[in-house]
Design brief:
With 221 residues, this protein is of the alpha+beta class. The protein has a twelve-stranded mixed beta sheet with strand order 7-8-9-10-11-1-2-3-4-5-6-12. The longest helix is centred in the middle third of the chain and has 24 residues.
Length: 221
């Protein structure tokens, strides 16, 4: 982990207008095979995909604050926009315990009402614009995530889902680029690569002829 953190900070130092930031995580749910999540960031866009250009992907227009979920099989791009969240519950007690880790990194443990929702390590000064872009994406999706939570059966409504996806993701992102994370569900993600690579403008476009469909902005409120 020390070598990983140092490499992340090193490659973050050289920026060029013709580059984009590429971040790759290896993720795994308990009992399932690991899979790759790739995040590509420019000053105007964020793209999240499986690492294959021809697969489905999510595209955030950072200036317009619109997110497109591109589903090639159905030829639809679902469009998400920010919405109004309800206030946090009055009994919501959040603590994010932060401790120094390897040089340039911090270890955190996020709890809500005494239950640990997430823990991990973040690199404070690594690729800050990529961290901002990921925060922007989650901000656009937060109201939809809340609606999904609210419409779920009561026995599946966990406060940690609200913490990780709706109200508290910012408290983690302000610590820096996540290098490793473990959620309350047991899902783990570890950084595989973070650095600058040549820009590929075609990756930041919704395919021509794809039908755009507005997603509900405030489901379940």
């Amino acid at each position: 982990m020390k070598r990983m953190a140092a490499a992340v900070l090193l490659v973050a130092s050289a920026a060029h207008a013709s580059d984009m930031i590429e971040i790759r995580y290896v993720e795994q749910d308990p009992g399932d095979s690991p899979f790759l999540t790739r995040v590509l960031v420019t000053p105007q866009f964020l793209r999240m995909d499986s690492g294959e250009a021809g697969d489905d992907f999510v595209l955030l227009d950072r200036k317009q604050r619109r997110l497109f979920n591109v589903m090639r099989g159905s030829n639809i791009a679902m469009v998400f926009k920010p919405g109004q969240l309800p206030p946090k519950p009055s009994v919501w007690k959040v603590q994010n315990k932060v401790e120094p880790a390897a040089k340039g990194t911090q270890r955190y443990a996020l709890t809500v009402n005494g239950v640990q929702c997430a823990q991990g390590i973040a690199a404070k000064d690594a690729h800050p614009d990529a961290v901002r872009a990921m925060t922007e994406m989650m901000t656009v999706l937060a109201v939809t995530q809340y609606g999904v939570w609210k419409s779920s059966p009561t026995d599946m409504q966990h406060d940690c889902d609200l913490a990780n996806l709706v109200w508290e993701f910012g408290s983690i992102h302000k610590l820096g680029l996540p290098l490793e994370e473990t959620e309350f569900t047991g899902r783990r993600r570890e950084l595989e690569f973070a650095g600058r690579v040549p820009l590929q403008p075609d990756l930041f476009k919704v395919p021509e002829g794809m039908r755009a469909m507005d997603a509900p902005t405030q489901p379940g409120l």
